[in-house]
User: What shape does this take?
Amino acid sequence: MMSNVYRRSVAFLFGLAITDTQTGIKLFKREVLEATVPRLKISRFAFDIELLVAASRFGFTIVEYPVRIAYSRTGSLGRMNTRNIFGAFIDTLSIYSRASFWRWLEPGLGMRIWMLLFIVGIFLFGVGVGKLLTPVILQGPVKQIFHFIALQFLPTNFRDWLLLGGGLALIILSSIQLNKKLLEAFVRRDRGDDLAGIFRK
Assistant: This one.
């Protein structure tokens, strides 16, 4: 189950349609390693992910073939524990950060401040709209439509947390997808020495 969740997360974050990114059996052409290894920074749990992300962005084809493996394992050595899972999670987020449009863009302090103010402005605008609509008395079909749109049929506490969680999830989802689209549109291979500086043609 954990492996499946991690695989889906990697596919969503990096666009890697690979069944098993952590398999110990991987074969690479020399040209792949010569292009990708100099850009790698992770040496722990998610090393495989970083290598595959770099290879994919350089435009190399990644192919999977079925292989039969006979495990001979005793005790608990080699099994994932809570510490290893947490380490893999942190490493994966580190790779995503280094492979992101934000890292490629390298915005200065002024641009970061304006981005922050833009987010704060959206929040304040939403609060203002909510306050303006509070005293408005809707009538007829419009009232019924707004009743369902605003989830007023749900308990107040549950509705508030649902809207908060849904809004946060939407922000995260849209940020990840926008990151992919911006990278595809602008990034070139010769931009810097990080993962964000390479991308397929």
About this structure: The chain has eight helices and no strands. Helices lie at 2-14, 30-36, 47-57, 82-98, 101-105, 109-133, 140-149, 156-186.
